Amino acid sequence: MLGRLPLSEQLDGLRSMLSQNEILTDVMARAATLDLPGWYVTAGCLFQTVWNVATGRPAANAIKDYDLFYFDDGDLSWDAEDAVIKAGRAVFADLPAEVEIRNEARVHLWYEQKFGVPCPPHTSTEAAIDRFAATTCCLGVRLAPDGGWRVYAPHGLSDVFNLVVRPNPVLAPREVYETKAARWKSEWPELTVLPWPN
Predict the structure, then answer these.
(1) Quick check: helix, strand or coil at residue 20?
(2) Does residue 165 sit within a domain?
(3) What is the spatial distance between Cα 143 and Cα 151, in angstroms, rounded to a whole number?
(4) Are 108 and 122 in contact (CB under 8 A)?
(5) What is the pLDDT of residue 171?
(6) Three-state secondary structure readout of the chain
(7) pLDDT band at residue 52 using 50, 70 and 90 as cut-offs
(8) Is residue 59 part of a domain?
(9) Residues near 183 by Cβ (< 8 Å), separated by ≥ 6?
(10) Residue 105 falls within a domain, yes or no?
(11) Residues 90, 28, 72, 77: is their CA dihedral positive or negative?
(12) Whole-angstrom Cα distance, residue 110 to residue 133?
């Protein structure tokens, strides 16, 4: 079981599993050409690819979208982020998937209106990934200039490989976690979903 292997072998296993999703590897390769500061492909497209491969499903099964985060605090205007989104739309236009591009330096400007709780400004893309509703989501991958992969996984990879969904009650409200977890469980019944702490 990959979740019990040494970290270097887990990283090899992660790359092997993610590489089976050709849409994902294409998104990563194209994202690298955008030259965005601090970028990562992150969240569902990663751990859901692992779940798919681990459970014998097609690697891209039920993946809604591909999240591409970057961090640019030099210009917090919507116009600057929208220009990046439009550039990305051209780069990803012929892919059979939606790629959602977001500047994580701007999240605090809209988060409370959408989710009902304030979000302190993020200081990096990694800081944004740290605040996902489930620790399983806290995963980012990007291509390094040397062609290697940079993996950010602050909670490790064991839960991802072991199909465990664990709450991360640092920012997102309980109902966000429970709604996401219920949707995932309906698609991947093999998951173990841990309850929100009281």
Answers:
(1) coil
(2) yes
(3) 9
(4) yes
(5) 86
(6) CHHHCCHHHHHHHHHHHHCCCHHHHHHHHHHHHHCCCCCEEECHHHHHHHHHHHCCCCCCCCCCEEEEEECCCCCCCHHHHHHHHHHHHHHCCCCCCEEEEEEHHHHHHCHHHHHCCCCCCCCCHHHHHCCCCEHHHCCEEEECCCCCEEEECCCCCHHHHCCEECECCCCCCHHHHHHHHHHHHHHCCCCEECCCCC
(7) very high
(8) yes
(9) none
(10) yes
(11) positive
(12) 17
Residue for token pair 């994580």: 104
Q: Does position 5 have pLDDT exceeding 90, yes or no?
A: no
User: Could you tell me the residue range of the domain that residue 68 belongs to?
Assistant: 2-188
32 assigned to some structural domain: yes
Strand partners, 142: 150
DSSP code, position 2: G
Structure tokens that stand for 24 in this block: 């994902």
For residues 4 and 136, give the distance between their C-alpha atoms in angstroms, rounded to a whole number. Answer: 16
Number of folded domains in the chain? 1
Q: pTM higher than 0.85 for the full model?
A: yes
